[in-house]
Amino acid sequence: MLKIPVNSMRHALFLRLVIMYLVVILPIIILGVYLYNWSYTNASQDISRNTLAQLSSYLEDTNREVEWLEIQQFDMLQDGELTRVAVTWDMMDSVEKKESMDYLVHRLTSIKNSSAYMKDIYIHIPSIGKTLSFGNAVHDLERGRYDQIRALSEQSGAKRLIRQGDSLHLSASKYGGKKGEEPLYIVQIELDTAKLKESLNQLSVYPESGSFLIAEEADFTLLGSDKSPHILNEYLQAPRLSEERSMLLRADGRSYHIDKAESSELGLSVVTFLPEETVKRPLNKFNKWAWLFTATSILAIVVYSLSTYRLVHRPLLLLVQSFRRMEGGTLDIQIEHGNKDEFGYLYDRFNQMLNKLQLLIDQDFKQKLMMQKAELKQLQSQINPHFLYNSFFILNSLAKTGDTDRIELFTNMLGEYFRFITRNGEDNVYLSEEIKHARMYTEIQKLRFSRRISVQFDELPKEMERIRVPRLVVQPIIENAYEHSLEKMSEEGFLRVSFERHEPDWMIVVEDNGSQIDDAAIQALNDQMTNNGEAHEMTGIINIHRRIMLTYGEGSGLFLSRSKLNGLRVEIRINPKEADGDAPTADRR
Q1: Do strands 246-251 and 254-263 pair parallel, antiparallel, or not at all (unpaired)?
Q2: Which fold has domain 78-191?
Protein backbone atom coordinates (compact mmCIF):
# COMPACT_ATOMS: atom_id res chain seq x y z
CA MET A 1 0.00 0.00 0.00
CA LEU A 2 1.26 3.47 -0.94
CA LYS A 3 1.54 5.93 1.97
CA ILE A 4 2.05 9.68 2.10
CA PRO A 5 4.99 10.58 4.38
CA VAL A 6 3.97 12.11 7.69
CA ASN A 7 6.36 15.07 7.35
CA SER A 8 4.62 16.15 4.14
CA MET A 9 1.45 17.09 6.05
CA ARG A 10 2.74 20.63 6.45
CA HIS A 11 2.79 20.86 2.63
CA ALA A 12 -0.80 19.56 2.31
CA LEU A 13 -2.68 21.59 -0.27
CA PHE A 14 -6.10 20.74 1.19
CA LEU A 15 -5.14 22.04 4.64
CA ARG A 16 -3.82 25.32 3.27
CA LEU A 17 -6.95 25.93 1.18
CA VAL A 18 -9.29 25.16 4.07
CA ILE A 19 -7.47 27.54 6.42
CA MET A 20 -7.39 30.29 3.77
CA TYR A 21 -11.11 29.90 3.10
CA LEU A 22 -12.10 29.91 6.76
CA VAL A 23 -9.90 32.89 7.71
CA VAL A 24 -10.61 35.18 4.74
CA ILE A 25 -13.91 34.34 3.07
CA LEU A 26 -16.30 32.53 5.36
CA PRO A 27 -16.62 35.04 8.26
CA ILE A 28 -17.12 37.97 5.89
CA ILE A 29 -19.74 36.20 3.82
CA ILE A 30 -21.65 34.93 6.84
CA LEU A 31 -21.65 38.32 8.56
CA GLY A 32 -22.64 40.29 5.47
CA VAL A 33 -25.42 37.93 4.42
CA TYR A 34 -26.80 37.74 7.94
CA LEU A 35 -26.90 41.53 8.46
CA TYR A 36 -28.48 42.21 5.11
CA ASN A 37 -31.13 39.47 5.35
CA TRP A 38 -31.96 40.37 8.93
CA SER A 39 -32.43 44.03 8.09
CA TYR A 40 -34.45 43.39 4.94
CA THR A 41 -36.69 40.81 6.62
CA ASN A 42 -37.49 43.11 9.53
CA ALA A 43 -38.21 46.07 7.25
CA SER A 44 -40.43 43.95 5.02
CA GLN A 45 -42.35 42.45 7.94
CA ASP A 46 -42.91 45.85 9.57
CA ILE A 47 -44.26 47.31 6.35
CA SER A 48 -46.55 44.32 5.78
CA ARG A 49 -47.83 44.37 9.35
CA ASN A 50 -48.71 48.08 9.21
CA THR A 51 -50.15 47.86 5.72
CA LEU A 52 -52.38 44.86 6.51
CA ALA A 53 -53.76 46.64 9.57
CA GLN A 54 -54.51 49.71 7.45
CA LEU A 55 -56.18 47.61 4.75
CA SER A 56 -58.33 45.74 7.26
CA SER A 57 -59.47 49.05 8.74
CA TYR A 58 -60.27 50.34 5.24
CA LEU A 59 -62.43 47.31 4.47
CA GLU A 60 -64.26 47.60 7.79
CA ASP A 61 -65.09 51.25 7.03
CA THR A 62 -66.20 50.33 3.52
CA ASN A 63 -68.40 47.53 4.87
CA ARG A 64 -70.06 49.94 7.34
CA GLU A 65 -70.75 52.38 4.49
CA VAL A 66 -72.29 49.63 2.37
CA GLU A 67 -74.40 48.44 5.32
CA TRP A 68 -75.70 52.01 5.78
CA LEU A 69 -76.57 52.20 2.09
CA GLU A 70 -78.36 48.86 2.32
CA ILE A 71 -80.41 50.15 5.30
CA GLN A 72 -81.44 53.24 3.34
CA GLN A 73 -82.23 51.04 0.34
CA PHE A 74 -84.38 48.73 2.48
CA ASP A 75 -86.25 51.69 4.01
CA MET A 76 -86.94 52.99 0.54
CA LEU A 77 -88.06 49.54 -0.60
CA GLN A 78 -90.66 49.39 2.23
CA ASP A 79 -91.97 52.91 1.69
CA GLY A 80 -95.77 52.76 1.54
CA GLU A 81 -96.07 55.72 -0.80
CA LEU A 82 -93.77 54.04 -3.31
CA THR A 83 -95.88 50.88 -3.16
CA ARG A 84 -99.08 52.91 -3.61
CA VAL A 85 -97.62 54.61 -6.69
CA ALA A 86 -96.57 51.31 -8.26
CA VAL A 87 -99.95 49.63 -7.59
CA THR A 88 -102.62 52.38 -7.83
CA TRP A 89 -101.05 54.85 -10.26
CA ASP A 90 -103.87 54.58 -12.75
CA MET A 91 -106.47 55.39 -10.03
CA MET A 92 -104.64 58.51 -8.83
CA ASP A 93 -105.46 61.97 -10.13
CA SER A 94 -102.80 64.34 -11.42
CA VAL A 95 -102.45 66.19 -8.12
CA GLU A 96 -101.88 62.98 -6.19
CA LYS A 97 -99.39 61.81 -8.77
CA LYS A 98 -97.40 65.04 -8.54
CA GLU A 99 -97.41 64.99 -4.74
CA SER A 100 -96.24 61.35 -4.69
CA MET A 101 -93.44 62.03 -7.20
CA ASP A 102 -92.26 65.09 -5.24
CA TYR A 103 -92.26 63.06 -2.06
CA LEU A 104 -90.24 60.21 -3.59
CA VAL A 105 -87.70 62.57 -5.20
CA HIS A 106 -87.27 64.29 -1.84
CA ARG A 107 -86.62 60.89 -0.22
CA LEU A 108 -84.01 60.08 -2.87
CA THR A 109 -82.28 63.43 -2.24
CA SER A 110 -82.14 62.75 1.50
CA ILE A 111 -80.70 59.28 0.97
CA LYS A 112 -78.12 60.57 -1.55
CA ASN A 113 -76.90 63.25 0.85
CA SER A 114 -76.54 60.74 3.67
CA SER A 115 -73.42 59.08 2.18
CA ALA A 116 -70.46 60.38 0.22
CA TYR A 117 -69.95 56.93 -1.36
CA MET A 118 -73.30 57.17 -3.22
CA LYS A 119 -73.17 58.62 -6.71
CA ASP A 120 -76.88 58.25 -7.47
CA ILE A 121 -79.99 56.32 -6.45
CA TYR A 122 -82.60 55.05 -8.89
CA ILE A 123 -86.13 53.69 -8.54
CA HIS A 124 -87.36 51.81 -11.61
CA ILE A 125 -91.16 51.42 -11.68
CA PRO A 126 -92.06 49.41 -14.81
CA SER A 127 -95.82 49.45 -14.11
CA ILE A 128 -95.99 53.24 -14.66
CA GLY A 129 -93.02 53.41 -17.08
CA LYS A 130 -91.04 55.80 -14.88
CA THR A 131 -87.55 55.98 -13.41
CA LEU A 132 -86.82 58.26 -10.45
CA SER A 133 -83.29 59.32 -9.58
CA PHE A 134 -81.44 61.99 -7.64
CA GLY A 135 -79.74 63.27 -10.76
CA ASN A 136 -82.70 63.34 -13.20
CA ALA A 137 -85.71 63.42 -10.88
CA VAL A 138 -88.72 61.83 -12.65
CA HIS A 139 -88.29 60.67 -16.25
CA ASP A 140 -89.26 57.86 -18.56
CA LEU A 141 -88.31 54.35 -17.56
CA GLU A 142 -84.65 53.62 -18.39
CA ARG A 143 -85.52 50.29 -19.95
CA GLY A 144 -81.92 49.29 -20.72
CA ARG A 145 -80.66 50.04 -17.21
CA TYR A 146 -83.73 48.38 -15.71
CA ASP A 147 -83.47 45.16 -17.73
CA GLN A 148 -79.74 44.89 -17.13
CA ILE A 149 -79.86 45.43 -13.37
CA ARG A 150 -82.78 43.03 -13.07
CA ALA A 151 -80.88 40.32 -14.97
CA LEU A 152 -77.70 40.92 -12.98
CA SER A 153 -79.62 40.75 -9.70
CA GLU A 154 -81.18 37.42 -10.63
CA GLN A 155 -77.79 36.03 -11.71
CA SER A 156 -75.84 37.28 -8.69
CA GLY A 157 -78.08 35.59 -6.14
CA ALA A 158 -76.82 36.48 -2.66
CA LYS A 159 -73.99 38.78 -3.81
CA ARG A 160 -74.25 42.24 -2.33
CA LEU A 161 -72.29 44.20 -4.95
CA ILE A 162 -73.14 44.06 -8.65
CA ARG A 163 -71.14 45.47 -11.52
CA GLN A 164 -73.02 47.53 -14.11
CA GLY A 165 -70.87 49.34 -16.61
CA ASP A 166 -67.74 50.66 -14.90
CA SER A 167 -69.17 50.98 -11.39
CA LEU A 168 -70.55 48.92 -8.52
CA HIS A 169 -74.22 48.91 -7.59
CA LEU A 170 -76.58 47.75 -4.85
CA SER A 171 -79.93 46.43 -6.03
CA ALA A 172 -83.13 45.41 -4.25
CA SER A 173 -86.47 44.45 -5.78
CA LYS A 174 -90.04 44.30 -4.46
CA TYR A 175 -92.43 41.79 -6.00
CA GLY A 176 -96.22 41.54 -5.97
CA GLY A 177 -98.22 38.58 -4.86
CA LYS A 178 -98.13 36.64 -8.16
CA LYS A 179 -95.25 34.30 -8.85
CA GLY A 180 -93.29 34.83 -12.06
CA GLU A 181 -94.30 38.48 -12.55
CA GLU A 182 -91.71 41.23 -12.91
CA PRO A 183 -90.99 43.25 -9.75
CA LEU A 184 -93.20 46.17 -8.76
CA TYR A 185 -90.08 48.33 -8.59
CA ILE A 186 -86.31 48.10 -8.18
CA VAL A 187 -84.27 50.36 -5.92
CA GLN A 188 -80.73 50.73 -7.31
CA ILE A 189 -77.82 52.52 -5.65
CA GLU A 190 -74.74 53.38 -7.70
CA LEU A 191 -71.48 53.67 -5.75
CA ASP A 192 -69.26 56.63 -6.51
CA THR A 193 -66.18 55.25 -8.34
CA ALA A 194 -64.33 58.56 -7.96
CA LYS A 195 -64.86 58.47 -4.19
CA LEU A 196 -63.64 54.88 -4.03
CA LYS A 197 -60.56 55.81 -6.07
CA GLU A 198 -59.90 58.75 -3.76
CA SER A 199 -60.12 56.50 -0.70
CA LEU A 200 -57.70 54.06 -2.35
CA ASN A 201 -55.20 56.87 -2.95
CA GLN A 202 -55.24 57.62 0.77
CA LEU A 203 -53.80 54.13 1.37
CA SER A 204 -50.63 54.99 -0.59
CA VAL A 205 -48.10 56.13 1.99
CA TYR A 206 -45.07 56.24 -0.32
CA PRO A 207 -44.87 58.23 -3.58
CA GLU A 208 -44.26 55.11 -5.70
CA SER A 209 -46.81 52.96 -3.90
CA GLY A 210 -50.37 52.33 -5.05
CA SER A 211 -53.46 50.26 -4.44
CA PHE A 212 -56.36 48.68 -6.28
CA LEU A 213 -59.75 47.24 -5.39
CA ILE A 214 -60.91 43.84 -6.68
CA ALA A 215 -64.42 42.39 -6.58
CA GLU A 216 -63.80 38.97 -8.08
CA GLU A 217 -67.42 37.78 -7.96
CA ALA A 218 -68.57 40.95 -9.71
CA ASP A 219 -65.60 40.92 -12.12
CA PHE A 220 -64.71 44.48 -11.11
CA THR A 221 -61.32 46.10 -10.59
CA LEU A 222 -60.48 49.67 -9.67
CA LEU A 223 -57.03 51.26 -9.68
CA GLY A 224 -56.28 54.01 -7.20
CA SER A 225 -53.97 55.53 -9.81
CA ASP A 226 -53.91 55.12 -13.59
CA LYS A 227 -50.07 54.99 -13.61
CA SER A 228 -49.77 51.28 -12.77
CA PRO A 229 -52.24 49.11 -14.77
CA HIS A 230 -49.42 46.69 -15.66
CA ILE A 231 -49.04 45.75 -11.98
CA LEU A 232 -52.75 44.93 -11.74
CA ASN A 233 -52.53 42.80 -14.91
CA GLU A 234 -49.54 40.84 -13.62
CA TYR A 235 -51.31 40.29 -10.30
CA LEU A 236 -54.50 39.01 -11.94
CA GLN A 237 -52.50 36.65 -14.18
CA ALA A 238 -50.96 34.95 -11.14
CA PRO A 239 -54.04 33.38 -9.45
CA ARG A 240 -52.06 31.05 -7.19
CA LEU A 241 -49.89 33.90 -5.94
CA SER A 242 -52.92 36.16 -5.44
CA GLU A 243 -54.13 33.80 -2.70
CA GLU A 244 -51.27 34.94 -0.44
CA ARG A 245 -51.58 37.94 1.86
CA SER A 246 -48.00 39.13 1.28
CA MET A 247 -45.73 38.29 -1.62
CA LEU A 248 -43.27 39.60 -4.21
CA LEU A 249 -44.53 40.31 -7.74
CA ARG A 250 -42.41 40.87 -10.86
CA ALA A 251 -43.73 43.44 -13.36
CA ASP A 252 -41.92 45.37 -16.10
CA GLY A 253 -38.53 44.28 -14.84
CA ARG A 254 -39.15 45.50 -11.27
CA SER A 255 -40.09 43.65 -8.09
CA TYR A 256 -43.02 44.87 -6.01
CA HIS A 257 -43.94 44.10 -2.41
CA ILE A 258 -47.65 43.13 -2.39
CA ASP A 259 -50.01 43.12 0.61
CA LYS A 260 -53.67 42.09 0.43
CA ALA A 261 -56.69 42.13 2.76
CA GLU A 262 -60.08 40.55 2.03
CA SER A 263 -63.66 41.08 3.12
CA SER A 264 -65.80 37.97 2.77
CA GLU A 265 -68.96 39.98 3.60
CA LEU A 266 -68.47 42.32 0.64
CA GLY A 267 -66.60 39.94 -1.64
CA LEU A 268 -63.92 42.63 -1.96
CA SER A 269 -60.12 42.53 -1.83
CA VAL A 270 -57.92 45.57 -1.48
CA VAL A 271 -54.28 45.26 -2.55
CA THR A 272 -51.35 47.64 -2.11
CA PHE A 273 -48.04 47.50 -3.94
CA LEU A 274 -44.69 49.04 -3.09
CA PRO A 275 -41.45 48.83 -5.12
CA GLU A 276 -38.95 46.53 -3.47
CA GLU A 277 -36.26 49.21 -3.61
CA THR A 278 -38.51 51.36 -1.42
CA VAL A 279 -38.67 48.52 1.12
CA LYS A 280 -34.87 48.38 1.04
CA ARG A 281 -34.52 52.13 1.49
CA PRO A 282 -34.11 51.90 5.30
CA LEU A 283 -30.98 49.84 4.61
CA ASN A 284 -29.22 52.82 3.02
CA LYS A 285 -27.45 53.53 6.29
CA PHE A 286 -25.52 50.33 5.72
CA ASN A 287 -24.07 51.65 2.43
CA LYS A 288 -20.58 52.20 3.82
CA TRP A 289 -20.54 48.74 5.32
CA ALA A 290 -21.86 47.30 2.07
CA TRP A 291 -19.07 48.94 0.06
CA LEU A 292 -16.50 47.75 2.56
CA PHE A 293 -17.98 44.27 2.39
CA THR A 294 -17.93 44.35 -1.43
CA ALA A 295 -14.30 45.49 -1.61
CA THR A 296 -13.22 42.91 0.94
CA SER A 297 -15.12 40.15 -0.86
CA ILE A 298 -13.59 41.07 -4.24
CA LEU A 299 -10.12 41.08 -2.76
CA ALA A 300 -10.76 37.74 -1.09
CA ILE A 301 -12.11 36.27 -4.33
CA VAL A 302 -9.06 37.49 -6.29
CA VAL A 303 -6.64 36.06 -3.73
CA TYR A 304 -8.54 32.81 -3.52
CA SER A 305 -8.87 32.50 -7.32
CA LEU A 306 -5.17 33.14 -7.97
CA SER A 307 -4.13 30.73 -5.24
CA THR A 308 -6.54 28.06 -6.47
CA TYR A 309 -5.38 28.47 -10.05
CA ARG A 310 -1.70 28.25 -9.17
CA LEU A 311 -1.97 25.51 -6.55
CA VAL A 312 -4.87 23.42 -7.88
CA HIS A 313 -6.18 24.22 -11.35
CA ARG A 314 -2.92 24.39 -13.27
CA PRO A 315 -1.44 21.17 -11.80
CA LEU A 316 -4.79 19.39 -12.17
CA LEU A 317 -5.10 20.51 -15.81
CA LEU A 318 -1.62 19.12 -16.51
CA LEU A 319 -2.63 15.79 -14.99
CA VAL A 320 -5.88 15.65 -17.01
CA GLN A 321 -4.02 16.43 -20.24
CA SER A 322 -1.51 13.69 -19.49
CA PHE A 323 -4.33 11.18 -18.91
CA ARG A 324 -5.93 12.16 -22.22
CA ARG A 325 -2.63 11.67 -24.05
CA MET A 326 -2.31 8.29 -22.36
CA GLU A 327 -5.84 7.35 -23.50
CA GLY A 328 -4.79 8.27 -27.03
CA GLY A 329 -1.98 5.73 -26.87
CA THR A 330 0.98 7.92 -25.87
CA LEU A 331 2.78 6.12 -23.06
CA ASP A 332 6.21 7.79 -23.16
CA ILE A 333 5.18 10.90 -21.17
CA GLN A 334 6.57 11.95 -17.81
CA ILE A 335 5.26 14.74 -15.55
CA GLU A 336 7.75 16.88 -13.63
CA HIS A 337 6.66 18.65 -10.43
CA GLY A 338 9.02 20.17 -7.88
CA ASN A 339 6.62 20.93 -4.99
CA LYS A 340 6.17 18.43 -2.18
CA ASP A 341 2.39 18.44 -2.13
CA GLU A 342 -0.37 16.04 -3.17
CA PHE A 343 0.21 16.74 -6.87
CA GLY A 344 3.86 15.84 -6.53
CA TYR A 345 2.79 12.53 -5.02
CA LEU A 346 0.18 11.97 -7.81
CA TYR A 347 2.64 12.83 -10.59
CA ASP A 348 5.21 10.42 -9.22
CA ARG A 349 2.65 7.60 -9.04
CA PHE A 350 1.37 8.50 -12.52
CA ASN A 351 4.86 8.13 -13.97
CA GLN A 352 5.24 4.76 -12.22
CA MET A 353 1.84 3.65 -13.55
CA LEU A 354 2.87 4.42 -17.14
CA ASN A 355 6.03 2.35 -16.77
CA LYS A 356 4.10 -0.61 -15.37
CA LEU A 357 1.41 -0.24 -18.04
CA GLN A 358 3.99 -0.44 -20.83
CA LEU A 359 5.44 -3.56 -19.22
CA LEU A 360 2.00 -5.19 -18.92
CA ILE A 361 1.20 -4.46 -22.56
CA ASP A 362 4.43 -6.10 -23.70
CA GLN A 363 4.10 -9.15 -21.45
CA ASP A 364 0.38 -9.80 -21.27
CA PHE A 365 -1.79 -7.97 -23.80
CA LYS A 366 0.27 -8.84 -26.87
CA GLN A 367 0.44 -12.50 -25.82
CA LYS A 368 -3.34 -12.67 -25.37
CA LEU A 369 -3.88 -10.99 -28.74
CA MET A 370 -1.68 -13.58 -30.44
CA MET A 371 -3.52 -16.41 -28.67
CA GLN A 372 -6.85 -14.95 -29.77
CA LYS A 373 -5.81 -14.82 -33.45
CA ALA A 374 -4.45 -18.38 -33.23
CA GLU A 375 -7.77 -19.57 -31.74
CA LEU A 376 -9.66 -17.79 -34.55
CA LYS A 377 -7.68 -19.57 -37.26
CA GLN A 378 -8.14 -22.90 -35.46
CA LEU A 379 -11.92 -22.43 -35.27
CA GLN A 380 -12.13 -21.52 -38.97
CA SER A 381 -10.20 -24.63 -39.97
CA GLN A 382 -12.84 -26.84 -38.33
CA ILE A 383 -15.48 -25.84 -40.88
CA ASN A 384 -13.96 -27.11 -44.13
CA PRO A 385 -13.81 -30.92 -43.40
CA HIS A 386 -17.43 -30.87 -42.22
CA PHE A 387 -18.72 -29.28 -45.43
CA LEU A 388 -16.47 -31.46 -47.62
CA TYR A 389 -18.08 -34.57 -46.12
CA ASN A 390 -21.59 -33.27 -46.85
CA SER A 391 -20.61 -32.29 -50.42
CA PHE A 392 -19.38 -35.80 -51.25
CA PHE A 393 -22.55 -37.24 -49.75
CA ILE A 394 -24.69 -35.15 -52.13
CA LEU A 395 -22.45 -36.04 -55.11
CA ASN A 396 -22.73 -39.74 -54.22
CA SER A 397 -26.52 -39.46 -54.10
CA LEU A 398 -26.62 -37.85 -57.54
CA ALA A 399 -24.27 -40.48 -59.00
CA LYS A 400 -26.58 -43.25 -57.78
CA THR A 401 -29.48 -41.71 -59.72
CA GLY A 402 -27.42 -41.61 -62.94
CA ASP A 403 -28.52 -38.04 -63.71
CA THR A 404 -25.41 -36.84 -65.60
CA ASP A 405 -26.86 -33.37 -66.37
CA ARG A 406 -27.41 -32.63 -62.71
CA ILE A 407 -24.00 -34.11 -61.88
CA GLU A 408 -22.38 -31.76 -64.39
CA LEU A 409 -24.27 -28.78 -62.98
CA PHE A 410 -23.48 -29.85 -59.43
CA THR A 411 -19.73 -30.30 -60.08
CA ASN A 412 -19.54 -26.84 -61.68
CA MET A 413 -21.23 -25.27 -58.67
CA LEU A 414 -19.08 -27.37 -56.33
CA GLY A 415 -15.96 -26.12 -58.13
CA GLU A 416 -17.07 -22.51 -57.62
CA TYR A 417 -17.85 -23.35 -54.03
CA PHE A 418 -14.37 -24.72 -53.24
CA ARG A 419 -12.71 -21.95 -55.26
CA PHE A 420 -14.23 -19.52 -52.75
CA ILE A 421 -12.69 -21.51 -49.89
CA THR A 422 -9.20 -22.02 -51.34
CA ARG A 423 -8.55 -18.95 -53.49
CA ASN A 424 -6.54 -17.03 -50.79
CA GLY A 425 -5.65 -17.10 -47.13
CA GLU A 426 -7.79 -14.22 -45.89
CA ASP A 427 -9.53 -14.80 -42.57
CA ASN A 428 -12.41 -12.43 -43.40
CA VAL A 429 -14.36 -11.72 -46.60
CA TYR A 430 -16.94 -9.22 -47.71
CA LEU A 431 -20.48 -10.16 -46.71
CA SER A 432 -21.54 -9.96 -50.36
CA GLU A 433 -19.07 -12.77 -51.16
CA GLU A 434 -20.18 -14.81 -48.14
CA ILE A 435 -23.85 -14.49 -49.14
CA LYS A 436 -23.03 -15.40 -52.75
CA HIS A 437 -21.29 -18.51 -51.42
CA ALA A 438 -24.29 -19.39 -49.21
CA ARG A 439 -26.68 -18.83 -52.11
CA MET A 440 -24.53 -21.21 -54.20
CA TYR A 441 -24.96 -23.82 -51.46
CA THR A 442 -28.77 -23.50 -51.57
CA GLU A 443 -28.65 -23.90 -55.35
CA ILE A 444 -26.66 -27.09 -54.86
CA GLN A 445 -29.27 -28.37 -52.41
CA LYS A 446 -32.09 -27.48 -54.81
CA LEU A 447 -30.69 -30.07 -57.22
CA ARG A 448 -31.36 -32.66 -54.58
CA PHE A 449 -34.52 -31.45 -52.83
CA SER A 450 -36.28 -29.33 -55.47
CA ARG A 451 -39.60 -31.16 -54.99
CA ARG A 452 -39.55 -31.38 -51.20
CA ILE A 453 -37.91 -28.14 -50.04
CA SER A 454 -38.52 -24.57 -51.27
CA VAL A 455 -36.15 -21.69 -50.51
CA GLN A 456 -36.75 -17.93 -50.14
CA PHE A 457 -33.39 -16.14 -50.29
CA ASP A 458 -33.80 -12.33 -50.00
CA GLU A 459 -31.48 -9.88 -51.73
CA LEU A 460 -28.61 -8.52 -49.65
CA PRO A 461 -29.10 -4.77 -48.87
CA LYS A 462 -26.51 -2.50 -50.46
CA GLU A 463 -25.51 -1.14 -47.02
CA MET A 464 -24.40 -4.61 -45.90
CA GLU A 465 -22.34 -5.62 -48.93
CA ARG A 466 -19.02 -4.13 -47.72
CA ILE A 467 -19.15 -5.51 -44.18
CA ARG A 468 -16.32 -7.99 -43.61
CA VAL A 469 -17.17 -11.19 -41.78
CA PRO A 470 -15.32 -14.42 -40.90
CA ARG A 471 -15.38 -16.96 -43.72
CA LEU A 472 -18.16 -19.58 -43.66
CA VAL A 473 -20.63 -18.22 -41.11
CA VAL A 474 -23.88 -18.29 -43.15
CA GLN A 475 -23.59 -21.52 -45.22
CA PRO A 476 -23.07 -23.85 -42.21
CA ILE A 477 -26.29 -22.49 -40.63
CA ILE A 478 -28.20 -23.28 -43.84
CA GLU A 479 -26.53 -26.71 -43.98
CA ASN A 480 -27.57 -27.36 -40.38
CA ALA A 481 -31.21 -26.55 -41.29
CA TYR A 482 -31.14 -29.07 -44.14
CA GLU A 483 -29.39 -31.82 -42.20
CA HIS A 484 -31.24 -31.66 -38.87
CA SER A 485 -34.68 -30.42 -39.89
CA LEU A 486 -35.75 -30.16 -43.51
CA GLU A 487 -34.42 -33.52 -44.75
CA LYS A 488 -36.40 -35.39 -42.09
CA MET A 489 -39.76 -33.75 -42.82
CA SER A 490 -42.54 -35.82 -44.38
CA GLU A 491 -44.36 -32.71 -45.68
CA GLU A 492 -42.96 -29.86 -47.76
CA GLY A 493 -40.10 -27.98 -46.16
CA PHE A 494 -39.45 -24.24 -46.36
CA LEU A 495 -36.22 -22.29 -45.74
CA ARG A 496 -35.97 -18.50 -45.61
CA VAL A 497 -32.87 -16.28 -45.49
CA SER A 498 -33.54 -12.57 -44.79
CA PHE A 499 -31.68 -9.47 -43.64
CA GLU A 500 -32.68 -6.96 -40.95
CA ARG A 501 -31.29 -3.82 -39.29
CA HIS A 502 -31.75 -2.99 -35.58
CA GLU A 503 -29.41 -0.16 -34.62
CA PRO A 504 -26.54 -0.63 -34.13
CA ASP A 505 -26.66 -4.27 -35.27
CA TRP A 506 -27.02 -5.85 -38.71
CA MET A 507 -28.79 -9.22 -38.69
CA ILE A 508 -28.78 -12.19 -41.04
CA VAL A 509 -31.79 -14.41 -40.25
CA VAL A 510 -32.01 -18.09 -41.26
CA GLU A 511 -35.26 -19.89 -40.34
CA ASP A 512 -37.18 -22.99 -41.38
CA ASN A 513 -40.55 -24.64 -40.78
CA GLY A 514 -39.23 -27.87 -39.30
CA SER A 515 -40.33 -29.14 -35.90
CA GLN A 516 -37.43 -31.49 -35.08
CA ILE A 517 -36.05 -29.32 -32.28
CA ASP A 518 -37.98 -28.49 -29.12
CA ASP A 519 -37.80 -25.36 -26.95
CA ALA A 520 -35.64 -27.09 -24.34
CA ALA A 521 -33.01 -27.93 -26.95
CA ILE A 522 -33.03 -24.32 -28.21
CA GLN A 523 -32.55 -23.04 -24.68
CA ALA A 524 -29.71 -25.54 -24.10
CA LEU A 525 -27.88 -24.30 -27.21
CA ASN A 526 -28.32 -20.69 -26.13
CA ASP A 527 -26.92 -21.56 -22.70
CA GLN A 528 -23.89 -23.26 -24.26
CA MET A 529 -23.14 -20.19 -26.38
CA THR A 530 -23.60 -17.88 -23.41
CA ASN A 531 -21.19 -19.95 -21.30
CA ASN A 532 -18.60 -20.27 -24.04
CA GLY A 533 -15.76 -20.39 -21.56
CA GLU A 534 -16.90 -23.74 -20.19
CA ALA A 535 -15.64 -27.02 -21.63
CA HIS A 536 -18.16 -28.64 -23.99
CA GLU A 537 -18.27 -30.16 -27.46
CA MET A 538 -17.49 -27.56 -30.15
CA THR A 539 -20.53 -27.96 -32.43
CA GLY A 540 -20.85 -26.11 -35.75
CA ILE A 541 -23.23 -23.49 -34.36
CA ILE A 542 -21.05 -22.80 -31.34
CA ASN A 543 -18.03 -22.68 -33.65
CA ILE A 544 -19.62 -19.89 -35.71
CA HIS A 545 -20.80 -18.06 -32.60
CA ARG A 546 -17.26 -18.03 -31.16
CA ARG A 547 -15.73 -16.78 -34.40
CA ILE A 548 -18.18 -13.89 -34.75
CA MET A 549 -17.86 -12.96 -31.08
CA LEU A 550 -14.04 -13.01 -31.29
CA THR A 551 -14.22 -10.67 -34.28
CA TYR A 552 -16.99 -8.28 -33.19
CA GLY A 553 -17.01 -8.58 -29.41
CA GLU A 554 -19.76 -9.07 -26.85
CA GLY A 555 -23.31 -8.61 -28.16
CA SER A 556 -22.52 -10.11 -31.55
CA GLY A 557 -22.84 -13.79 -32.46
CA LEU A 558 -25.68 -16.28 -32.89
CA PHE A 559 -29.05 -16.03 -31.15
CA LEU A 560 -31.54 -18.92 -31.39
CA SER A 561 -35.31 -18.79 -30.95
CA ARG A 562 -38.55 -20.38 -32.18
CA SER A 563 -39.41 -19.16 -35.69
CA LYS A 564 -42.87 -17.96 -36.71
CA LEU A 565 -42.62 -20.74 -39.31
CA ASN A 566 -42.60 -23.16 -36.32
CA GLY A 567 -38.99 -24.22 -36.88
CA LEU A 568 -35.66 -22.87 -35.67
CA ARG A 569 -34.76 -19.18 -36.13
CA VAL A 570 -31.05 -18.33 -36.13
CA GLU A 571 -30.06 -14.63 -35.97
CA ILE A 572 -26.47 -13.75 -36.91
CA ARG A 573 -25.92 -10.37 -35.25
CA ILE A 574 -23.01 -8.19 -36.31
CA ASN A 575 -22.07 -4.84 -34.80
CA PRO A 576 -19.48 -3.32 -37.19
CA LYS A 577 -18.69 -0.52 -34.71
CA GLU A 578 -17.23 -3.07 -32.30
CA ALA A 579 -15.05 -4.80 -34.93
CA ASP A 580 -11.29 -5.23 -34.38
CA GLY A 581 -8.67 -4.46 -36.96
CA ASP A 582 -9.29 -7.67 -38.91
CA ALA A 583 -12.93 -6.87 -39.66
CA PRO A 584 -13.45 -3.36 -41.07
CA THR A 585 -16.88 -1.83 -40.76
CA ALA A 586 -19.33 -1.36 -43.62
CA ASP A 587 -18.35 0.96 -46.45
CA ARG A 588 -20.87 3.87 -46.41
CA ARG A 589 -20.46 4.72 -50.08
Answers
A1: antiparallel
A2: Beta-Lactamase (3.30.450)
Residue pLDDT tens, the chain, 589 long: 444 444 444 555 555 666 776 677 677 767 767 776 777 677 777 777 887 888 888 888 888 888 898 898 898 888 888 888 888 898 889 898 899 899 999 988 998 888 888 989 999 999 899 899 988 888 888 888 888 888 888 776 667 888 888 888 888 888 876 766 788 899 989 888 888 888 888 877 777 788 888 887 778 888 877 767 777 777 777 765 556 678 788 887 788 878 888 888 888 888 888 887 777 666 666 666 667 777 777 787 777 777 777 777 677 777 777 777 777 767 677 777 777 777 777 877 878 887 887 777 766 655 555 555 555 555 555 555 655 676 677 778 778 888 787 778 778 887 887 777 666 556 688 999 999 989 988 887 787 777 788 999 999 999 999 998 888 889 889 988 888 888 888 888 999 999 998 888 899 999 998 877 888 888 888 888 877 544 444 567 887 888 888 888 788 899 999 998 888 999 999 987 755 444 444 444 3
C-beta atoms surrounding 379 within 10 Å? 18
Listed in sequence order, the residues at least 6 apart from 206 whose beta carbon sits closer than 8 Å to its beta carbon are 274, 278
| Whether the Cβ atoms of residue 101 and residue 134 lie closer than 8 Å to each other | no
Q: Which CATH class is domain 382-578?
A: alpha beta
Q: How many CA atoms does the CB half-sphere of 381 hold within 13 Å?
A: 7
Domain ranges of the chain: 78-191, 196-282, 382-578
Question: Residues 378, 383, 389, 390: what is their CA dihedral angle, to the nearest 10 degrees?
Answer: 170
The answer regarding whether domain 196-282 maps to CATH 3.30.450.20 reads yes
One fold for 78-191 and 382-578: no
